[in-house]
Amino acid sequence: MAAIRLPLRVTPKASRDEIIGWRNERLAVKVTAPPVEGAANEAVIKLLSKTLKLRASDLSIVSGHNSRDKVIAIDGCDMGQLREKLARALES
């Protein structure tokens, strides 16, 4: 199974870690970690792995390491499962 690529728009130094929803074809994510020494990137991976119920090792940043716009590669689920898990997360 090929990795799914998920485009993100990340807001660091937010008041809490949360997935906001879709903005301009990117999933908007807020994390409390600052954008220093990869802390925000680690927080994004942790939040998504918890939300999607996947291991952190199943997620990796493939572009945008130093940008708010990122692309995450996701192994361990197909597109249907990803849509379902994200829809559930956005409902709550």
Descriptive labels:
single chain, 92 residues, Conserved Hypothetical Protein Mth637, Chain: A, 29% helix, globular
Could you explain the architecture of this structure?
It contains two helices and five strands. A five-stranded mixed beta sheet has the order 2-3-1-5-4, covered by helices on one side. It has a single domain, classed as YggU-like (Conserved Hypothetical Protein Mth637, Chain: A), CATH 3.30.1200. It has helices spanning 39-52, 79-91, and strands at 4-11, 18-23, 26-30, 59-63, 69-74. The model has no long low-confidence stretch (mean pLDDT 95). It is globular, with a radius of gyration of 12 Å.
Summed up:
This protein is 29% helix and 33% strand. By secondary structure, it is an alpha+beta fold.
